[in-house]
Structures are given as structure tokens and as C-alpha cells.
Amino acid sequence: MGVCCLTTAPSLVAEDFTYVVRPGDNPWTLTERYLKSFNYWPRVQDYNNILDPTAIRPGTKLLIPVGWMRGVAAVAQVTDLRGGAELRRGANITPLKLGLTISVGDVVRTGPGSTLTLEFPDGSRSLVGPDSELRMADLARLRASAGQQVHIELQRGQLENDVSSIRKGSGRFVIETPAAVAAVRGTRFRVTSSSQEVRSETLHGEVVLQNPAGKAILRAGNGSLAQLGKTPARPIALLPGPKLDHLPARVERVPLDLEFPALPGALSYRTQLAPSAGFSVVVDDQISTAPRARSAADLPDGRYRLRVRAIDRHGLEGLDAEREIEVDACPEPPLPSQPAADGIVVVDNPEFRWAGSGEGAHYRFQLANDAAFGSLLLDADQLEEPHLTLTKPLPPGQYFWRVALHTTSEGQGPFSDAQRFRRPPPGPLPEPPRIGSDTLELRWRAGTDGSYQVQISSDATFAQPQVDRQTSEVMLSVDKPPAGVHYVRVRAVQAGKPPGAWGKPQQVEIPHDYWRALSILIPALLILAL
Prior knowledge:
By secondary structure, the protein is mainly β. 7% of the residues lie in helices and 45% in strands. The strands form eight sheets. It has a 19-stranded mixed beta sheet that branches.
């Protein structure tokens, strides 16, 4: 119970070749020149109701079934190939290579993710999808004309076909599957088949999807599906191509994950990438339930033709939307580590760090005060180590930094994602302290709401502060430290936020109290003298 996909021309439905009689022609001479056997001449006479075979007028049109006609063997050629495929010719199986010819009886298999293009003598082309298997059942040119006879047995997989226009009655292009037969003339169409169902989508031309239960005429922009033993579905309008105008012309990250407007009625979307507009091979083929153009993570750098189409609830794939896109994602940018995104930097000369790469690479570092890096504050190239420390103090403000990797083999790759950080204003500056007989009183001007952290240390690095207190007041009274030089610093602290920057350390000198020492020493000496 085959399903037949045919153009609406009556000559193609009957698979007849139209021959225009020339002077001197008769059934015997026609049979000898163009038919498979001389025994066909009575059939030609009967098929055309010829009463007097010796008196056929020139210009008379005779119909001859194509199956009776003699052909000249032809071959198809593999004009493009991506991935692994194999050719079985008789008992021999060999890897398929670019430029090889495919003859009648040959079997072609593509592997996962592999595609290839077969080109026929008249310029027709078939794009063979991944995980497909086909057999070239017939490929010939009719002796009576330039009409091409193509018969492909597609055991599994998908074919996208661009069939050259063929003169009426002179050729055919047939794709036979376990559940369907598609025969067309001068059209672009897709056929996806399994053992139980066939789906057909017509992009240009007109196709008839037919089986013993009925038929559906599919004009351009329509599709249908047919199951074994059931009437083909009425023509269904294919979904339009998605809008891709806003997608970037250049991307620096893979896998691709580019959002576009959703289409009503779409359940999923297919994204294909090819190295050229002709789509003679597909280098990447992804299906997503979200309206996003996606790719594999290992997509190489290069210029591609991006093709996206929507898929409806019947599984019919809609019209194509295409555009050019450039991928420049290698070498991958280093991973920034310090300062972290949205971090706070309190030191005057920040240090920037990122993940290191292998030998033979260097880095390019950029610092700006805007996310677009339109106003660069620093552009340092040829950095051999994965870190950089600013030599000049960085004023308070908001900043962005990024880094790129440069290798000998791939040149400079894209920059990392911009890392934003903030340099807050310095903390409160202590006023001159009040040094009492037993206490040290510190004061500073109020800043933001919250509390303050105060540290007193005998060394300028504050490695081991002697005092580390927190207070909600703008003053702090502590026991007077020992005599000598001390350092004081203050910073603001707000609940739920990182601490602010330390204010500039202030040096405080605690004088020696000689009178107190004498008041203790003299009585002791008097006691010893008694």
C-alpha cells in the first residue's frame, strides 16, 4: 500500500513520455531506437490506438510509458560531505569521499551528525541527512530525450531535494520509502519517512500526496502527512519563518543560544548551520522546544549560513528563515577570578587575576568605567602572567574589566564577560585624638547610617591590631595604649552589605608619662634607703 507523491501534470501521473512524430517515424523504428525490446512495437500501436502504423502524420503526439523506454546509464556525484559516511557497492564497503560517483545499485549510509549532497547530471540535488540510508535504484537518461530518470530507495532518514525543471513527459525523480513514494518534477520539497508514516512539505512547485484512500494536493507553502491505510491529511499551511533580524552578526560564545520571537502554533524549532548559502552540507543540526537558535558546544570558528524553521504539532517543518552569522569563540577567554563580579575593592592599587593557560600564550587586559568599554582606562597587551596590579591608585567609582587569550595557532580570542566592581569612597577620617591620663578618645565625622569599625595597631599593616571595636557612635573611648607610635583607621559597616573602605590610617603618638613614673619610683627608693 504505497503512498504516491506526484505533481499534478497528467503525463507524470501516468508516467508517460510524449513523443512528437517526425517524418519517416513508425512504431517499428521508434521501438528499435528508443524502447527496451523490439517486442514493444505492438504495445505502442495499441496504447495510442494507431489504426494504420504506416500513415502516422508528422507532429502527432504519441504517449509511451517511461517504463518501456531505453535509457543510458548515468551517475550521481558526491559534491559535498561533512562527517562520516560509507558506500556499499556489492559486497564491498568503503568510506565515502568527496568526488566519488554513485551508480545504480550503490548504497549510501551517513553517520550521526553527518550530511552530504548528491548532484545529478541535470543539476538536481539531494541533501542526505544524518543517520540516513539510501540505495540508487535507477539513474539514467532517456535515449529519446535529455529526460533524467532518478529512482532512490530511502530506507531511513531524510532527503531535502531541489529538483531541476524537467520538460513535460521526459523525466521523473522518485523517492521510494518503506511507507511512501514521492515523485516530483521541477520543485523543492522535503520528505521525512518512517515505516508507518510520511510527512511532505512543499516549498516551491506543487505536489500530490496520494494513496488508495485518497489524495491531497500540496501547493507551495503547504504540507501534509499520510499513514498506511489512512487518507492523507488535508493540506496544512506551513508555519512562517521565524524573525531573525535582531540576531547578532557576530558571536563570541558557543554553544549558540540566541533568542528570537516565538511563533504561534510552534511546538519546537530546528536550527541548522552550513558553511555556505546553498546548504550542500549541514555542519550542525539542533532542535529546541524554546524559540532559540542553538548549536553544539564544539562549533568551530567561521562564517556560517544560519537556517531556522518552526515545527508544528503535526511534525511538519515550516518555511526557512536564513541569515549570515560569524562565530569567533576561539581561543576561549580565561576565567576571571579577582576581583569577582560585583565585588568591592578597597585597596588603592587593585590586583587582577584570571585562570592561566598553557605555554606559548599571552593575555590582553582591559579596564574601563563603562560596560561597553568605549572609554578605556587601561589596555595592556602581551601580558605573560595571568595577573596584573595597577601601578597608579584607582579613584573611587564603578569599573569594568575583562581579559582575552592570545595563542600562536588561533590568534586573539574573544574577551571574557565584563566583570563589574566598585571602589567605594574612603572611610571616615579620624580627628586628632584626645589623650587623657588613662583613656584615648577618638572622633570622626558621621557618614552613612549604620555603625563603624575602629582598629588601633602598633604597626601600619594592621596585621595584629590591639583594638578592634564596632560602635554605632561617631566616637570611641578606649584604654590608653602604651607609650609609642600607634595607627588608627575607621570604616563604615552597614547590615546586609559588605564593609566599606578603610579611611586613611592616622598616626597617633602616645607620650611617655615621666611624672607618673617618678611618683612611683621615688617612694620606692626612699623605702630602700631606710
